[in-house]
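Annex B.
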Amino acid sequence: MAAAQTETLHSRILAELTRKIVDGSWPPGHQLPKETELATQYGVSRMTMNKVLTQLAQEGYVVRRKRTGTVVAQPRAQSAVLAINNIQDEVAALSRRYHWRLLSAETRPRSAQDQRQLDLDAEEGTCDTLFLQGLHYSNDDPFCLESRAINLGVVPDAAGMDFDCDVPGSWLLQTMPWTNARHHVRAVNVAGRDATLLQLPVGAACLEILRKTQIEGEWVTYVRLLYPGEAHQLVAEFEGRPGG
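Putative HTH-type transcriptional regulator YurK: predicted structure tokens.
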């Protein structure tokens, strides 16, 4: 097939699939036919169809996962760049069902990996630290992978909490009047166990938020939040100033 003809077919198929998503013929969560079935339906090679689906994923129209195939993407969750949001509220804003699954919880000195992953400061103490990891879900899809360290010297009640039932971030927001916070936000390519837990292919784009909260100079918690890139976006509002 000539390159120009392939390009024309690619554009036509892309436009048709996009239209079905935009006009609601394929609503959020709709399962697309298999790549091979679509290729047969449109009379193109599997490579051409793969390029179409890849472009749809890059533009945020669909989500491609190893186990579930290709589905129409949900509307993206939004959070303010400087706000500390309750993830349960983010999921509820999408009219989806939320649940939390604790993966691990242990009290121990921090490791070099903890320090790298959570951006822990080298000069801060290493004892009496509770390390937690868990998954936030939107319906049955992984929405955010959370890794968290809590300073038990400042928040001793955390040692007795059942974080299988109580979501750590929500509990801290309700009980701990922190005085200042710091965010680091960046795009990363997911790998290893993180990719497996989020059900993403290795190398998929993700949004990483590293956050530290303090009370009068004492750190309360460090947290790393990892969101699938197609499911989340940050929003900031600014007011203009004369001459600005």
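Strands lie at 62-65, 69-72, 77-80, 98-107, 129-138, 141-151, 180-189, 205-215, 218-228, 232-235. The longest helix spans residues 3-22. Further annotation is deferred to the next reporting cycle.
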